[in-house]
């Protein structure tokens, strides 16, 4: 991507994992796990996502 490109190069977001209640259980609800993610656009215009905490840990190592 060039410096004059108006598309975002980084995107912050969330991913959710839904786990249904155990089989045979009446009532109740499943659990939803929400995790922060960060995505980067590569030169081909596709997005690659990683866990936000992995990004944060890498940034801390770089800035030491």
Can you describe this structure?
The chain is α+β, with helices and mostly antiparallel strands. The protein has one domain. Helices cover 17% and strands 41% of the residues. The protein has one helix and three strands, in the order E-E-E-H. The protein has a three-stranded antiparallel sheet with strand order 1-2-3. The protein is elongated and about 55 Å long. 0% of the residues are buried. The model has no long low-confidence stretch (mean pLDDT 85).
Outline:
The protein is built from 1 helix and 3 strands. Helices cover 17% and strands 41% of the residues.
Helix-strand pattern, N to C? EEEH
- The number of distinct helices, counting runs of at least 4 residues, comes to 1
Q: State the distance separating the first and last CA atoms.
A: 28 Å
Computed Rg: 18 Å
Mean pLDDT, nearest integer?
A: 85
- As residue ranges, the low-confidence spans are none
Structural classification: alpha+beta
| Overall morphology | elongated
Q: Major β-sheet, in short?
A: 3 strands, antiparallel
Helix content: 10-25%
Tell me the number of strands.
3
Domain count: the total is: 1
What share of the residues does DSSP label as strand, in percent?
35-45%
Strand order of the biggest β-sheet: 1-2-3
